[in-house]
Amino acid sequence: MYQVKTYNAIVQAGFDRFTDQYQINQTDDADAYLIRSVDLHQQVFPKNLKVIVRAGAGFNNVPLDKATANGTAVFTTPGSNANAVKELMMAMLVAASRNLFAAADYAAHNSGADISKRTERDKTKFNGTELLGKQLAVIGVGHVGSLVANAASQLGMQVIGYDPYLSSDAAWRISTKIKRAKTLNAALKNADYVTVHVPKNEETTGMIGAKALSAMKDGVTVFNFARGGIVNNTEMLKALDSGHAKGYFTDFGSDEILNRQDVVITPHIGGSTGEAETNGAVQGAETIMDFLETGNVLNSVNLPNLSAPFNTPYRITVMHQNIPNMVGQIATALADANINIENMSNAAKDKVAYTIIDVQHLQKHDGEIIDCLSHIDAVYRARLLRK
């Protein structure tokens, strides 16, 4: 029986996905956490905690170093809220081009007997532009960016994408009408609108700063519905104050960008739809079950992707440091226990490696094998699974 602890409101569809091998919120000493936005940085993880799944695309609320040291795999549910973010982004793109927020605010505060005449006289203040034929630069064309690029192209926009880490799977999702830039500046230089859809990390934090903004043409409108901090707000304000940029639309508020007519802020609602929450909960439950029952890894933040058919009675998985001779030490320990390896797979991601070993027979008690492997220096966690 596996124990799952949840944080935040997880929709029932996620709970319904778990089989009768799982108990939900029966103990704090859980095998798995299924979370959304809870901040785990101050949490003390139980040693039994094998996996954390965040129902969403980001993982800034999970302390990866602490999780890894505990032997805990961390996963996200990429793509689960992609359509929701895409639809919000497209709504903001239309709103920006037609000055809808300023127009609606004017109309809401316009009253009196001559309202019709004043409206006709003043409405030219809110003249917008059509999106047809305008150029949109999409920075990051993964799950969300590819949807935005395709949708904008269907509206008749000229779309250019930039993503130095474009995966083959993502490439299949992108319309052949989308042009691909080789550099960030090449994507930005002729864009009427710029939108970012990249994960937040050391490389992308502040990527839309002074240099990137200076590469854009005058009158550009910038959108950030990815993560706070990808656009440097200080430099963005300088571009707005100088008239170089026309507007900034973002899902991430901060004090310095409040109360400006040229900035529109939404309260982090990109993935806030019932459908997205259901998708994340269901995908999260399936990720937990697959990892706990097979040891296979897909979409982990701190482990490499590694999957293999589970066709033997037993499977041993080892999460360990990515240093020389780890696989050799693991294989030697199993040989010393008179255990023959049927299949072995190994992969690494940065400083962490993961090994899957399939065996037909065990010559020692389960606990002895796992204890032996766990005491190898640089091993974070060893597990024994039964088919």
Automatic annotation (TrEMBL):
Pathway: Amino-acid biosynthesis; L-serine biosynthesis; L-serine from 3-phospho-D-glycerate: step 1/3. Keywords: NAD, Oxidoreductase. It comes from the Bacteria. Gene3D superfamilies: 3.30.70.260, NAD(P)-binding Rossmann-like Domain. One of its GO terms (molecular function) is NAD binding. Transmembrane segments: none annotated. The keyword NAD applies. It holds the Pfam family 2-Hacid_dh_C. This is D-3-phosphoglycerate dehydrogenase. The lineage of its organism: Bacteria, Bacillati, Bacillota, Bacilli, Lactobacillales.
